[in-house]
Each structure stands twice: as C-alpha cells, then as structure tokens.
Amino acid sequence: MKKNVLIPAFFLLSLVYSATNAEDNLAMQVFKGYCWGCHHQTAQAFGPSFKEIANKRKKDEIIAQITDPKDMYKKLGYKRNSMPAFNDLNASQLDAIVTYILSFKDKK
Fold first, then answer.
1. 3-102: CATH topology
2. What dihedral angle (degrees, nearest 10) is formed by the CA atoms of 48, 51, 55, 57?
3. Judging by beta carbons within 10 Å of its beta carbon (0-12, 13-18, 19+), is residue 101 exposed, middle or buried?
4. pLDDT digits over 24-42, tens only?
5. Structure pTM?
6. Residue 106: CB partners within 8 Å, gap ≥ 6?
7. CB 30, CB 93: distance < 8 Å
C-alpha cells in the first residue's frame, strides 16, 4: 500500500473510532444517570435486564417505554408500571441508550 493512502485511511479510521467511542460514552452516561438504578445489562434487577428487553422489543417500543411508560406498559403486556417517564433525554441520548440496549440482543 502506498504511503499517501495510509495517512487518509488512518484518519478515516480515527474518525470512525472517535464517533463510535463518543456514542458509547454517551450511552454509558445515560445508562448510569437514568437506567442503572433499576436495570442491569444482563441480569434481572428491579426492572428487566437490557438483554431481556432487547430480545422482546423493537426500537420504537423501547423509545415509547422510555418516554411514555404510562401509555405503553399495558400495550407491552406488563401488569403494572413503576418506570418514570424520561422526557428530558434529547434525541442523541435516546438514540444512544436504545442502541446500547439493543446491543444485548441474542445473536441468532
């Protein structure tokens, strides 16, 4: 590979890594600030694990449960709702946490 191709490729990979790393950091900030008290990644806590959620729900259902749990809990088959609405999450935070949750979906 020529030297002049390596430099742009390195910078492109650095940008992709930085963007991915920033999204991961945002997801962890949201997880620690909003979710961790009731949800864990793979183990049952007060609420279902992210793994369980990811294997049962689609992206739009997860978003709706986060932003409007009072309206969604019966539609999703829960008998009661103890989850608060998190309407203060911006679009980037919401997308980051939903992507993080869905990352725990079993690979088939």
1. Cytochrome Bc1 Complex; Chain D, domain 2 (1.10.760)
2. 50
3. buried
4. 899 999 999 999 999 999 9
5. 0.76
6. 51, 54, 55
7. yes
